[in-house]
Design goal:
Elements lengths: L1 E8 L7 E7 L6 E11 L1 H7 L9 E2 L3 E9 L11 E4 L9 H4 L17 E2 L6 E2 L9 E5 L3 E3 L6 H4 L5 H12 L8 E4 L3 H13 L4 E5 L2 H9 L4 E4 L5 H12 L6 E6 L4 H10 E9 L14 H7 L2 E4 L7 H13 L9 E5 L4 H9 L5 E5 L1
Parallel strand pairs: 4-8, 11-12, 11-14, 12-13, 14-15, 15-16, 17-18
Antiparallel strand pairs: 1-2, 1-4, 2-7, 3-5, 3-9, 3-18, 5-6, 6-10
Helix pairs in contact: 4-5, 7-8
Bound molecules: adenosine-5-diphosphoribose (APR) and zinc ion (ZN) (2 copies).
């Protein structure tokens, strides 16, 4: 066991605290990781506000890269010294979803068995089973994906959550390819990542939609070919017009990614699709939201697919090393997502930054 500093949310709505935590030595199937960087995500704030569950105290942080310090005796997938990106999808290989080949739907993903604790022994609940806003963290070995050590930790650590969710929404769930059109509604970190994923695939046009002009400028930097300020213009009509300019007869985009998580924007995404197009919902709705009241004939008549994308339908072992290599080749600008490098003591301030301004991600550097 060792003691390190970590960012803990002790009770609902209260500001986070930097406290000493106990990190056990890794047991079977576990690894201790020395954290190099960890992004501050909306989900961390959501934990602090009690919006996920009531299992306080939480050890926050889950968008992280680090160096494996020690592993349990039986662990062979990673070794001390490996540079890894942490993930919250360490698949079990045994459940029904894994056995039928849908590993990204695994029902029984692994986390560490032992608990990290406060100094008084109170067990901590690590955010998304990771808890990486700490100098060191204990995770399941399967939560560590080894990637090229030459990559900048602050940038590639973001693959651990929101950036992967967005890229995967376009590539894995939407199946976007060269020769297809895409529109992305909502261009925060997740939506802009979907734009970057579409650019990687060679999609065209890539239409970014937001109500904030600063977000549209970021989307352009990451590969959007067109932007629509939906506080000024009807995004459905504009998407249809832009797609018809590129592909004669098109009545919308082949794929529309909804990255806000609201009924109004889901409805826009539904109608902005070309016939037989795919709607990908990656924005997370609140539990009280309902599917908009649509004529069933419109669902039938447009055909296509209405999908949701959970962590970008990613498989960390397949997707993280590939995306890190594309980053190192200069083809995926993960640096653009790091809008601020901060210290562990600045996490509470980063929650404020999230709500106003140009921020995509504030990243704690250790
Ligand atoms: N139309 C278009 N864009 C909108 C609208 C709207 N009506 N309302 C909000 N937006 C934009 C915001 O301006 C912002 O750029 O949606 C974006 C949301 O981005 P963030 O708040 O930064 O969230 P992000 O991290 O990208 O996550 C998006 O996915 O993972 C989930 O919980 C997360 O639901 C959230 C969503
Ligand atoms: Zn499984
Ligand atoms: Zn996250």
């Amino acid at each position: 066991m060792q003691q390190v500093q970590g960012v803990v949310a002790r009770k609902k709505g209260a500001p986070v605290e930097i406290v000493t935590i106990n990190v056990p030595d890794p047991g079977p199937g576990e690894a201790v990781v020395k954290v190099r960087s960890c992004g501050v995500c909306h989900t961390d704030l959501h934990y602090r506000e009690g919006g996920i569950n009531d299992d306080f105290p939480f050890l926050l942080g889950h968008e992280a890269a680090g160096i494996v310090e020690a592993v349990g005796a039986d662990v062979t997938s990673v070794a001390p010294g490996d540079f890894v990106v942490l993930n919250w999808r360490a698949v079990c290989g045994q459940c029904r979803a894994c056995k039928r080949g849908d590993l990204h739907y695994c029902f029984a993903t692994h986390n560490a068995t032992q608990k990290m604790t406060l100094e008084d022994g109170t067990a901590l609940s690590p955010a998304l089973g990771i808890g990486a806003l700490a100098e060191k963290t204990l995770v399941a070995a399967g939560q560590c994906t080894k990637v090229d050590v030459r990559a900048r930790p602050a940038a590639v650590g973001l693959l651990g959550c929101g950036v992967m969710a967005g890229i995967g929404a376009a590539l894995n769930t939407g199946g976007i390819t060269r020769g297809r059109s895409i529109a992305v509604i909502g261009c925060g970190g997740v939506g802009v990542a979907a734009v970057a994923g579409a650019a990687l695939a060679g999609a065209s046009p890539i239409i970014a939609v937001d109500i904030d002009a600063r977000k549209l400028a970021q989307a352009t930097r990451l590969g959007a070919t067109h932007t629509i300020d939906s506080s000024q213009a009807d995004p459905v009509a504009e998407i249809k017009r832009i797609c018809a300019e590129t592909y004669e007869g098109a009545d919308g985009a082949d794929v529309v990614v909804e990255a806000v998580g609201r009924p109004e924007t889901w409805r826009q995404a539904f109608y902005a699709r070309d016939l037989a197009g795919t709607l990908v919902l990656v924005g997370v709705p609140t539990p009280d939201m309902k599917v908009p009241d649509l004529p069933l004939i419109d669902v039938f008549g447009r055909g296509g697919a209405l999908k949701s994308s959970w962590y970008g339908d990613c498989l960390p072992s397949r997707d993280f090393p590939m995306l890190v290599d594309l980053y190192l080749q200069g083809r995926l600008d993960l640096d653009a997502f790091v809008t601020e490098e901060i210290a562990l003591t600045d996490v509470e301030a980063a929650f404020d930054t999230m709500h106003h301004g140009n921020a995509l991600r504030s990243v704690v550097i250790f």
